[in-house]
């Protein structure tokens, strides 16, 4: 066997390929150069861009809420709505799962929810922010904080508080959880109350904690306070009187409104049933309805003064014109029109027609009027169009075009059937009798200057009608409307309700609208009792006493001097008179 020496190995003896080694070295050097270039680009050339991108992933714009303005009564001393501190309780699901069952149960008890609901809300661990409850009271939030539950955090916020509760509910309204107005004044003047939110640009860590500010803070502009025309004392008195009447007569609902006849300001507006705006669970159903402005009804006899005033204003009749109303039954256009009096009212002048509330007399007056003139006057009084008060829910009612009126419809409209109105519209229209025939504009905000008005009747006609309405609220009329020490004027109305397209024989709405004191009218008060089921249903019986109570307390609160002897109150027990 031939042996080879070390230097004679065929492998070692072959010449190495140096170009391959050089290629590897060059490739390694190029790789290091590329890495160095990339590092240079990232660390120096693109540093600002990458920094911005990184910050953007954790950068947040925080909204700095503006403090919502307060709502005050006309005196400025009674707060009707204000914002109070509250907390938003939130959680990081991943951390919240470490909480013990006892902690979760106690948290659920404080938040008034079920433990399973809290578990369900936090089951997605990919989320890092979940609200557990908003607008938690400060005392509850403090108790929750003391539990030291993993992942549970709190944010400062505010919630709306309504000190007057259900007494002011339909006026003030309420806000939603985002502090936006939903009903009432809160909705009507939301922009003025809410102000302008500010902003703060910050960087947050994974736990939602602010690390630093990255932009100048834009401060919020707080909302304006609103001073309403409502008088808190008059509102409470009206609420108390209406609630007592609703209970006494076992009525389905009731409403009342008090107007300042001089300024057109709404001093009180009450609806029953009501609700507590502080209780979110109570904000449902029929209790939310502001019946003064949203409910329409056929007004009945409270429309008669407007028709009579029109006939006097046009010279179609005088105060001495006589009308033979007969025995209380009158055949007209194929229909029988009747008066309440079983014996009939006989011969009446226009004042007697108003005082005795004669449907037959009003029918005879309507025969002297044209449908067009009645429609134009009713329209001028605001019927058939929504009142301009900047309050949500205002309805226009129903007043059909005069071209479609038949003679029988002109007659029924003359005494309050065939058209529909809201209680606000009726009270507004009665300001023509409380003033010099002009109808003043309405306001829910306290006025500083003089109000505007529209002339509807002449001053002479307004004074004549005040005298007739005073008699209608006197001993031979709706005597329960009288007020000790003050001369009052007004008209009751009783209307059948329409059920399934037909007039019901068991369901009524009793109303009374009037003004006081007659010598120098200061207020107009309108009251409506819906479906009274005990103690009668005529407006003069169920609504007139409420009018009396409201007028008495209101005039005394306003400091209006009596214009009648203090012993002038007629005893209502055992006396006759119209209750219609």
Describe this protein's structure.
This protein has two domains: 62-226, Penicillin-binding protein 2a (Domain 2), CATH 3.90.1310.10; 232-557, Beta-lactamase, CATH 3.40.710.10. Strands 2, 3, 4, 5 and 8 form a five-stranded mixed beta sheet that branches. Strands 10-9-21-20-19 form a five-stranded antiparallel beta sheet, sandwiched between helices. A hairpin with a 6-residue loop joins strand 2 and strand 3 (79-91). The chain is an alpha+beta fold and 580 residues long. Helix 11 (232-248) packs antiparallel against helix 22. The chain is built from 22 helices and 21 strands. This is Peptidoglycan D,D-transpeptidase FtsI. It catalyses: Preferential cleavage: (Ac)2-L-Lys-D-Ala-|-D-Ala. Also transpeptidation of peptidyl-alanyl moieties that are N-acyl substituents of D-alanine. Catalyzes cross-linking of the peptidoglycan cell wall at the division septum. It is an enzyme of class 3 (hydrolase).
